Description:
The chain has helices at residues 13-23, 44-53, 63-72, 80-85, 88-96, 100-111, 135-144, 160-168, 172-177, 180-183, and strands at residues 3-6, 30-33, 57-59, 116-120, 125-129, 198-201, 230-232, 244-246, 259-264, 270-274. Helix 7 packs across helix 8 (160-168). Strands 3-2-1-9-10 form a 5-stranded mixed β-sheet. Strands 4-5-6-8-7 form a 5-stranded mixed β-sheet, covered by helices on one side. The chain is 31% helix and 15% strand. It contains 10 helices and 10 strands. It has 279 residues and is α/β, with parallel strands linked by helices.
Amino acid sequence: MAIYVLSDVHGHARALDEALDLASPADDDQVYVLGDMVDRGPASVEVIHRVRALPNVHVLMGNHERMLLDVLLETGEMDSFTWALNGGYTTLTGLDGLEREQCVELVEWLRGLPLFDVVDTASRRYILAHAGIDALEARAYLATAGVDVSEGRGAAAATREQLLDMMARQADETLLWTREDFWGQPTGLVGADGTGPVVVVGHTPSIVLSSYADRMANDGVTADGRGMVVPVGACPATDGVADRIDIDCAAAAGAPRGRVGIVRLDDGATWYGTVNEGE
Length: 279
């Protein structure tokens, strides 16, 4: 069983299909979608249907799903104008095309999405969220839980349950919206021996990641300017291991730069679906 992760499809159903066809996860593999299925692209509802139909799929909430819920359920401060500025009108058009019962069921499903997860491959543990974490807060909690993360020890000694408790104490705002604070500093969770959990997120399009992060494994763009998966943070203090991975391949930007990326965590293999003109 392998673990595949993707994020920030933003309504680009055909590019999602292309990436999934290339990656070809088996029925017993696990697929994690880290939010922002909706808005900007033309087929948000179709993306949700495709994601929900995948075998063994696990979906996290993104900031765009939260904006949708804030507006439709009047549960937050986000207003419909701001949502529209962020591409929400395309999602609203798709929802308007559903029968009322279908729309209610879909919105309730979105409402129940979790904000994080912790998963294991044969060789490493990964923390999954949409945007990132507050690393200082995370390390502080682990210290109170008896996990010594000081002096380059990292968090390899933390159990999955401790990491889940750690994530449950993170602010929703951080998990859904953080950017510069997360990418601008190491997490401290990967130790000097290279062990410890790696944080995998979307939210920040790789084509602008260099504005926030250093120690990027690549430029965040291909030679022709398209988004790509970016491991971040490899350095001597982590024994050359990237402690963060950005999997937002800029589908929100549309053509010609946007892609939907999929990563297999077990071996780091990547596949891409390209957002074409008119999509």
